[in-house]
Amino acid sequence: MLRSLIQSLRHALPLLCPGCLQAQRNGALCPVCESYLATIDYPCPSCGAPGSSFEVCGACLKKPPPWDSLHGAWHFEGLSRHLIHQFKYQHNIAAGRALVMLWLAHQTALFKPDAVVAVPMHYRKQQQKGFNQAEWLARQIGAHWSMPQWHGVRRIKATTALEGLDKGQRKQMLSDAFRLTDRPPRSVALVDDVLTSGATAAELTRLLKRNGTQFVSIWILARTPL
Ligand SMILES: [Zn+2]
Ligand SMILES: [Zn+2]
After folding, report:
1. How far apart are the CA of 128 and the centre of ligand 2, in A?
2. pLDDT tens, 109-123?
3. How many domains does the chain have?
4. Closest ligand (CA of 20)
5. Dihedral sign from CA coordinates of 144, 71, 155, 66
6. Which of 18-27, 92-101, 185-194 comes out lowest in average pLDDT?
7. Residues spanned by the domain of 153
8. Does the residue 97 lie in any domain?
C-alpha cells in the first residue's frame, strides 16, 4: 500500500532528477548526477570495451562476437548501476526515462536497423515482475527514432541468473531458451538494459542470423567488463 503510494507520488512528480531528487526540468538527470555516470570512453565498436580509440579491439580481432556492433553508454557501476536497479527492480520509470533520454543523446551517428527487438523475458517471470525493462527501453527508442518494434521472438525457457556460471553452464542454460514465432527482419537492434557476460545477446544473435537476419547491433545502457 505504502509502496504503491510512493510509486504514484513518484509518477506525479516527474520534475525531479532521479539521481538526487532535486528539481530538474523534464525529469532529466541534473548536471551533477550526469557527471557521476561513468561513460565508456573510446569504446571498441564490436564489444564496447573502453579505451580502444573506436577501433576493433584485440580480443574482437581474435574472436569476433556473433553480432556486428555494440553501443552502450556507461560502465555498470556507481550511479548508472543504482539507477538501472531502481528502474529494473523498483519499477522506477523516472530513472529509466532519464537514462534513455541521455543514451539517445549520446548516440548521434547510429546506423538505424529495420527494427528494434527487446531481449524477451519468460512469460512467468514477466507476470511475476509485471514489467520487462528491455521491452520498455525498446519501445522508447523505437518511438524516438520512428523505428518499428519486432515481437517475433519468445523466451520459452525460464533461465536463472547467468552470473557465476562458467561458459559451458551458460551455454547449456541458454540452449533452446528462445524461439522465433515469425520471420525476422534483415537488420535489427537488440535492446537490453545491461550487458554482462554477453551470452544471452550472443544466443539471440545466432538464432536471428540462422533465420535470415544479416545485421545485429546490440543497444544497451550499460556494460560490465565481459
Ligand atoms: Zn541530480
Ligand atoms: Zn572488442
Report:
1. 36
2. 789 999 999 999 988
3. 1
4. 1
5. positive
6. 18-27
7. 11-223
8. yes
Ligand lying nearest the CA atom of residue 72 = 2
Grid cell digits, residue 78: 556507481
Nearest ligand to the C-alpha atom of residue 22:
1
Euclidean distance between CA atoms 133 and 89, whole angstroms: 9
140 CA distance to ligand 1 centroid (A)? 22
Do the domain assignments include residue 6?
A: no
Q: Which three cell numbers stand for residue 158?
A: 525460464
CA of 171 to the centre of ligand 2 (A): 21
**pTM of the prediction?**
0.90
Note whether residue 150 is domain-resident: yes
Nearest ligand for residue 56 CA: 2
Task: Tell me the residues surrounding ligand 2 (ion) with CB < 5 Å.
Answer: 44, 46-47, 49, 57, 60
| Residue count (the chain) | 226
164-185: pLDDT as tens digits: 778 788 777 788 889 999 999 9
Listed as own residue / partner, the contacts of 207-211 with beta carbons closer than 8 Å and 24 or more positions apart are 207/153, 207/178, 207/180, 208/117, 208/153, 208/180, 208/184, 209/66, 211/180, 211/183, 211/184
What's the CATH code of the domain at 80? 3.40.50
